[in-house]
Design goal:
By secondary structure, the protein is α+β, with helices and mostly antiparallel strands. About 50% of the residues lie in helices and about 5% in strands. The protein folds into 2 domains: about 80 residues, 3-Layer(aba) Sandwich (Glutaredoxin); about 120 residues, Glutathione S-transferase Yfyf (Class Pi), Chain A, domain 2 (Up-down Bundle), CATH 1.20.1050. The protein is built from 9 helices and 4 strands; from the N terminus they run βαβαββααααααα. It has a 4-stranded mixed sheet, with helices on one face. The structure holds glutathione (GSH). The site of glutathione (GSH) has 17 residues, from helix 1, helix 3 and helix 5.
Length: about 220
């Protein structure tokens, strides 16, 4: 790829899924003009935005002349194909399946349970108060991270990162969970392999620059 497409990224400072895209863009040396969708104000439900992303979810990556691309993992794989260096997937089919599997445990089975639309339903329709919502968040963050920890600790393919000694899509999806847990002041104990890998990721500027608190619109800590 010689000239990168003119990307617009519909985003919000504190979102886990957009964090993943920011990390991938940073790793690839790509840029995107960010357009704020304020999830606290509910702008994801605006009719104009729903035309771009009918799920009412960010990120959405827009290139001139094409429909918006949604789903962070699909966007990550797209970026990896148009800008192959550094690769976000291993070269072998079994390795790629393992990385995608770990990524899905986090991006598909963990993160969606704690999104604003789920919170909205549970608090408006299912009688959840703030304490019940907090217990829900802790339950699903803990379930997801402990399951990933069990795999990472047991499987020989784990290295400095989730798969070997290079950053992959699995590390990006993994880092996207603690990145938002700190916003909700939630911690999960007894995940030493994840803690070790997260320390490696945080030392990489592409990850550090994607931190929610370094984004436009973020409150100061
Ligand atoms: N599976 C989607 C999840 C997208 C998603 O749920 N994004 C959240 C922010 S992290 C969102 O926009 N939520 C809006 C809502 O739940 O109302 C992805 O990975 O892109």
């Amino acid at each position: 790829m010689t000239v990168q497409p003119e990307f617009e990224l519909y985003s919000f400072w504190r979102t886990s899924a957009t964090y993943r895209v920011r990390v991938a863009l940073n790793l690839k040396g790509l840029t995107a003009r960010e357009r704020d969708v304020d999830l606290i104000k509910g702008e994801q439900r605006d009719p104009e935005f729903l035309k771009l992303s009918p799920m009412g979810a960010i990120p959405a990556l827009v290139e001139p002349g094409h429909p918006a691309m949604t789903q962070s993992t699909a966007i990550l794989e797209y970026l990896d194909e148009i800008a192959p260096e550094p690769p976000l997937l291993p070269a072998d089919p079994r390795g790629r399946a393992r990385v995608r599997s770990i990524a899905a445990m986090l991006a598909a089975d963990t993160h969606p349970l704690i999104t604003p639309r789920v919170r909205g339903y549970l608090t408006k329709e299912a009688g959840f108060d703030d304490a019940a919502w907090k217990r829900w968040q802790i339950q699903w963050f803990t379930t997801g991270l402990q399951a990933v920890e069990a795999r990472l600790a047991a499987e020989a393919e784990t290295g400095d990162f989730c798969h070997g000694d290079r950053v992959t899509l699995a590390d990006i999806c993994l880092a996207s969970i603690p990145a938002v847990m700190k916003i909700f002041a939630i911690e999960v104990a007894d995940i030493p392999t994840i803690d070790r890998i997260m320390a490696r990721c945080e030392a990489i500027e592409a990850f550090a620059a994607a931190d929610p608190y370094r984004q436009a619109g973020a409150p100061s800590r």
